[in-house]
């Protein structure tokens, strides 16, 4: 197996780190040689922090420029991770459509744009899929393999097998809908959480505690369907009959979110969101977040 990763930003570097940790031959392609070299070094550092199975310096990694790369024939899959710009992604996929042998699957790690839009009108769009990772890509196991309007379903199942061989947990999303699978469920929860904060029902801190130490705690062991198989759907029906009519169904983002973004309070990046952040607090919180993710992954 050889995986070609396109993009030298956070997601591309994380995807590459996961491959290095598994000692899977990989190629990182970008538009600037210096940025490629820096991304490879960063990916090796991230892989080392994962407790990689072998010396990360020995992992087979190449780097090159997307403009001039021609050795596509050895690739098992190509995964795009460039900036979330639809025009940029469409231009890149037009180039890949012409240059990459037609039997090699092409995946986009876009979280905003469906593969149907990215691949629209391309001759080989049947081998193109969403390949959506979650940050941090080197730790979070899930990859959503999303079928576009013209994607080959049989090839998609082979793509899922490739991700399994990379030690990821692929799910097949059979329709190219906004948010795919996991983000739709995540945003449904976020809409209700922010609406509860807006209504003064609970503080942001208590919302986090309620999720982490109740159903979120259980979800590390069982997803929502299996958990209700255990507890009983009859209880879910009775509770849902009471709760569903009262849930937020707003089609716009809650005021507490819109107001903070308008004020530039976007979280750690600006030093304040719902919480205030010093550089030291940011470093400590991120380290603790990574530690807990790794512990959860070890259990899974």
Question: Can you tell me about this structure?
Answer:
This protein has 300 residues and is an alpha/beta fold. It has 2 domains: 3-173, Rossmann fold (3-Layer(aba) Sandwich), CATH 3.40.50; 182-299, N-(1-d-carboxylethyl)-l-norvaline Dehydrogenase, domain 2, CATH 1.10.1040. It has helices spanning 10-21, 33-49, 86-99, 115-118, 153-165, 182-198, 204-212, 215-219, 224-231, 233-243, 255-262, 279-299, and strands at residues 3-6, 26-30, 61-65, 77-80, 106-108, 128-132, 142-147, 169-173. α3 links the parallel β4 (77-80) and β5.
Q: How many domain modules?
A: 2
Under CATH, the topology of the largest domain is which?
A: Rossmann fold
Which outline best applies? globular
Mean of the pLDDT scores?
A: 95
- What's the CATH architecture name of the largest domain? 3-Layer(aba) Sandwich
> What composes the largest sheet?
8 strands, mixed
- Give the oligomer, counting copies of the same chain as homo and different chains as hetero: single chain
Count the beta strands: 8
Features of the shown structure:
300 residues, alpha/beta, Rossmann fold, N-(1-d-carboxylethyl)-l-norvaline Dehydrogenase, domain 2, eight-stranded mixed beta sheet, 12% strand, globular
């Amino acid at each position: 197996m050889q995986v070609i990763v396109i993009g030298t930003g956070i997601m591309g570097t994380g995807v590459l780190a996961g491959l290095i940790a598994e000692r899977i031959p990989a190629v990182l392609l970008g538009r600037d040689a210096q940025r490629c070299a820096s991304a490879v070094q960063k990916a090796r550092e991230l892989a080392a922090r994962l407790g990689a199975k072998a010396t990360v310096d020995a992992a087979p990694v190449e780097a090159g420029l997307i403009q001039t790369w021609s050795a596509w024939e050895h690739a098992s899959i190509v995964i795009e991770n460039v900036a979330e710009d639809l025009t940029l992604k469409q231009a890149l996929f037009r180039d890949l459509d012409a240059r990459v042998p037609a039997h090699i699957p092409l995946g986009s790690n876009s979280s905003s744009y469906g593969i149907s839009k990215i691949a629209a009108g391309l001759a080989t769009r049947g081998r193109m899929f969403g390949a959506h990772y979650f940050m941090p890509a080197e730790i979070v196991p899930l990859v959503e393999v999303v079928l576009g309007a013209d994607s080959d379903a049989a090839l998609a199942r082979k793509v899922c097998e490739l991700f399994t061989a990379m030690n990821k947990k692929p799910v097949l999303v059979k329709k190219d809908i906004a948010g795919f699978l996991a983000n739709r469920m995540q945003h449904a929860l976020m809409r209700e959480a922010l609406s509860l904060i807006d209504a003064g029902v609970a503080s942001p801190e208590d919302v986090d505690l309620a999720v982490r130490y109740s159903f979120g705690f259980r979800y590390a062991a069982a997803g929502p369907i299996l958990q209700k198989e255990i507890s009983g759907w009859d209880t879910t029906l009775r509770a849902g009959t009471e709760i569903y009519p009262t849930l937020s169904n707003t089609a716009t983002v809650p005021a507490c979110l819109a107001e903070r973004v308008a004020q530039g309070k976007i979280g750690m990046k600006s030093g304040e969101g719902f919480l205030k952040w010093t550089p030291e607090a940011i470093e400590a919180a991120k380290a603790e977040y990574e530690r807990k993710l790794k512990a959860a992954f070890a259990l899974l």
